[in-house]
Every structure is written in structure tokens, then in C-alpha cells.
Amino acid sequence: MTNAAADSRLFEPTRLGPLDLPNRLVMAPMTRNRATADGVPQAITATYYAQRATAGLIIAEASTPNAVGQTYPNITAIHNDAHVEGWRQVTGAVHAAGGRMFLQIQHGGRVGHPDTSGLMPVAPSPIPLPEPIHTPTGRQEAVVPREMTVDEIRSTVADFADAARRAVAAGFAGVEVHAANGYLLHQFLAKGTNHRTDGYGGSVAGRIRFTVEVVRAVAEAIGPERVGVRLAPGLTVNGIDEGDTAQLYPALVAALADIGPEYLHLVFADPEQQMFKDIRAAWPGTLIANPVLGWGGPLPADGGRQAAERLLAAGADLISLGRPFLANPDLVARLRTGAPLNALREEGLMYTQGENGYTDYPTLPATGTPAALRDAA
Ligand SMILES: Cc1cc2nc3c(=O)[nH]c(=O)nc-3n(C[C@H](O)[C@H](O)[C@H](O)COP(=O)(O)O)c2cc1C
């Protein structure tokens, strides 16, 4: 261990809304499909997150705010009392281990299937996902989603706000609105998926409206200091084609700044990109940056440490990492001390049931992870 490594700003305490964070490392939201078919998190999920409680902040996985918003089988949800009870076990275990948690709220829009949710997916326009989707019976062709009515848009805004209230009741310090990665809000933002001719489509002002209304409603429900928003400018996953990224995001970020949520969370942030620089300059609040770590390939040997330092130097306030936290419950201590990292085990274990590849990644004896948590793994 060198002093320079330990002295990085990454390991400095900071504040985020109602929280004191012991360091600037955030566990990025990761869907792990270990809930019941109805979206209730189980005891194993409490163990998984408690093992990772030394993260400055954990942003728990995408959770659906209503039944039709379900993306994949066995994802977590946050729209009824059983979900609140399930999540309360999780936040309780994380708090007992000294950690802090937000919950990500995600509506899948066209990324869904009737065999999964029992409902026909809804979207800004009846344009199907251009790729097969996971269902309880394996991968299937996507269906043509039903175009949302204005009444459905309004009730979905209310569902997000209600989900946020439930998340706080379940013990989360706040929520992250998921407007990235090709799910419902991103589908509204992008020209390729939003062909609407009413006030929720067409111009940039029309396409950002739904996201802005959701963030405003969520901020009014639980307080803006408990709200974050995840954005992925230019990302094309899930068949997204924004069309006018360079116009879209400045307008969206300005509208969000008027509402004043606590943070923006940029996916695949690149400090060299003009979009990153422009958003940093325009955003008055906390910026969480999620760096590019060789998506689809092996993780860098340094676990993202260099990418994190570059982003901090470029003005990011917090750094989120996904797969390094997945494979290393004690990631913060390992990065701080320069200790070797666990290898990420095969992709097939990311979205399956059970402990394998979930709660069985070892911690280092020297990292100070409570023995009870090590033994629970
Ligand atoms: C297993 C897995 C599940 C993911 N689930 C989500 C999710 O629920 N919500 C989300 O916004 N991003 C999700 N992501 C993306 C991560 O938050 C992150 O942006 C991505 O993994 C890149 O960061 P990394 O290189 O540090 O892993 C997921 C990624 C992985 C590997």
C-alpha cells in the first residue's frame, strides 16, 4: 500500500442529501433476479447488500413501480406492502452493517413481456424492442407494446411517486429515477422510440416532459434531497436511438436543475467526452460518474481505480462501480490498500437464482469486514 493510494479523494468522506458518506465510492444498481416471481426481495438479498455495506452508498437494483413496468423474471419491485416488508429486511441488514442505501426505480416500458408480467407492455409508441427478451420460459421475440394514453402517463407519474414513498417507508434514504439504458423514460427521451404527436413527443421539450414530470412528482413526494436521476446520453442499448443527443441532454439537465434533485448519475461517463464536460458545467448538484470498464470483457486489473481518479479530476463528485462491487464485497478496502481483486465469475451467474455468484464472493481476512458477514457468505 502506498500513501498516495490511500490518500485519494475517493476515500474522503462527503455528504449526499441526508447522508454522510464515508467515501466517494458508490455501488451501481445491478439487477440480480433473486426476488420472488412477485418481486419481493428475500433474505439472501439482505446478506448480499450487507456484505457490501462499506460502499459510500449502495444504489439497490432496478425495482418496478407497477406491475406493467416489470422487465425480466424475478426482478425486485416496490409497489405493494410485501415489497416494502421485503426491502425493510434488506435496509435493516445494511444499516446494521453500517451502510447507506438508495433504491433505483425503473419502469421497463417496451422491455417487458406478457409471459413475465401477465400484461402487455406499454411504451411511448407501438415499436417493439428489436431483440429477443428474457422471459420465464427463455428468450422470446419481443411483442409490439401498446402506446400509452395520456391518462396512463399521468398514473405512471403517480406510481413513481408512490414507489418513492414506499422506498422511504422501507428504510431507503432516497431513490434514483432510472431514465437510462433504454427503459421507459429513455424510450420517451429518444426519437427512435417516441413517435408521439401529442405533448409527450415530437420536440425536445415534448420528449423530456415525462421524465421531468416523474422527477418533479418524486421530489415532491419525498423531498428533492432524497432523489437522484440516472441518465445515459448517447447509449444505444435496448435499441435506443436518441437522434439529437446534443440538444436533448442540455434541455433535460436544465429542466432537472430547476427541480433540484440531489444528484445526476451518468452511465459510462467519459471525462474526455464533450457531453460529460457540458453536463458537469451545467449541473449544480452532485454528479455521480459510472466509468467505462471494458463492457462485455474482463474487468481492468485495477478494478476501475484509474478510471475513477480521472473522473474525479474531471469534476465528478462520486464514482459508481458495478461489476467490481459484484465480485468484491470489500471493494473499498481492496482499492484503498491495492489488494488483489476477485475475478468476476461467468456471466451466467449474474441473473440466476441462489448464492452462486451472489453471496459467495470472498472478502479478504484483513479488510475488516465483520466476521459475521464473512461467515454468512
Ligand atoms: C448484472 C448487472 C445488472 C445491472 N442492472 C442494472 C440496473 O438494474 N440498473 C441500472 O441502471 N444499471 C444496471 N446495470 C449497469 C450497471 O449499473 C453499470 O452501469 C455497468 O455495469 C457498468 O459499470 P461497471 O463497468 O462498473 O460494471 C447492470 C449491470 C450488470 C453487470
Q: Which helices and strands appear, and what pairs or packs with what?
A:
Elements: H1 3-6, E1 14-16, E2 19-21, E3 25-27, H2 43-51, E4 57-64, E5 76-77, H3 81-96, E6 101-105, H4 114-117, E7 122-123, E8 133-135, E9 138-140, E10 146-147, H5 150-169, E11 174-178, H6 184-189, H7 204-222, E12 227-231, H8 245-259, E13 263-269, H9 274-282, E14 286-291, H10 305-313, E15 318-321, H11 323-327, H12 331-337, H13 371-376
Parallel strand pairs: 3-4, 3-15, 4-5, 4-6, 6-11, 7-10, 11-12, 12-13, 13-14, 14-15
Antiparallel strand pairs: 1-2, 8-9
Helix pairs in contact: 2-3, 5-7, 7-8, 8-9
The structure holds flavin mononucleotide (FMN).
Describe this structure as you would to a colleague.
This protein is of the alpha/beta class. It is 34% helix and 16% strand. Strands 3-4-6-11-12-13-14-15 form an eight-stranded parallel beta barrel, surrounded by four helices. It has a two-stranded antiparallel ribbon with strand order 1-2. Strands 7-10 form a two-stranded parallel sheet. Strand 8 (133-135) and strand 9 (138-140) form a beta hairpin. 50% of the residues are buried. Residues 370-377 have low confidence and may be disordered. The structure holds flavin mononucleotide (FMN). The site of flavin mononucleotide has 20 residues, from strand 4 and helix 11.
